[in-house]
Amino acid sequence: MQRVEAKRVERAVRVLYRAAAAVGLFWYGLAALPAHSAEEYPSRPVRLVVPFPAGGPTDVVGRLFAEKLTAIWGKQVIVDSRPGASGTIGADIVAKSNPDGYTILFGSTSTFAVNSVVLKKLPYDIIRDFSLIGLASNGPHVLMVRAGFPAKTALDLIALAKKQPGKLKYGSAGAGTIIHMSAELFKHQAAVDIAHVPYKGGAPTVVALLGGEVDLIINDLSVVLPHVKSGNGVALAAAHTSRLRPLPDVPTFAEIGLPGIVASTWFGVAVPVKTPPQVIARIAAAHGQVVQREDYKQRLATLAMEPLILTPEQTSAFLKREIDKWQKVVDAAGIKID
Question: Is there a domain that residue 338 lies in?
């Protein structure tokens, strides 16, 4: 099993570097774009498919991204919400669309890294059928308990869990979601046994935590922050490489001796793999402008997110690490969803 997955990751990297080379037409000027292609695209509205429900984090950031693309291109970028089946319905629509650049996928960690290692059957191959343009933003994850919970620090929580194996419970937004995977990463790295209670979405998970149905959650900073500020929740650790600006007093997992716990909900842009390189480069050019815009960065900050500004090679390396990380979590936890 591990040998098969290792080969899959290796193949993923090779394909991603081919995509990076195409995107590099813009980034590094390694080839000249045919004038007619560069001038004509886009000549009409572009559809940005968001494979998750309206109002959720992917939809909110996707609409922000579409707004900035519209401003850059002078052509409307229309958000098309196609939720369902952990984001696979919308992704499949894009995979099977005409590869002309007028149907773009705006997906998340689940879309690009988790689903391929968790779900047994996918109607597409995220590596074979897509070219990744780049990453759009990142929402670091935070470990939170409710106010009044006995554990006052992450180390206290780990000690409590080890004294009572299987008794503590964590909530997730559903089996196989990135929130589920982040908690399993915590369990694996901390060597604790905590029971999983899945809910239908992130909001019910927070309600369950504050109501005492579960003892902890690991969720996006954007979800956790309002409850920490209100005093109803207590942030114990950040699953990030550095302390988070909105929570400067909350240590990272690395600071408490668990550097392997780095997790986030990130968002990216992709097109069908047969999209012409000239069009991919054109989209990459606009993507690069969006993530560098100050108004985009400022709006992300209000959402407790940050832009991800990476070169194509860095993007490929980032995605490889993510796929490899979540594959190890899946193997350790024995997660597989039909």
Answer: no
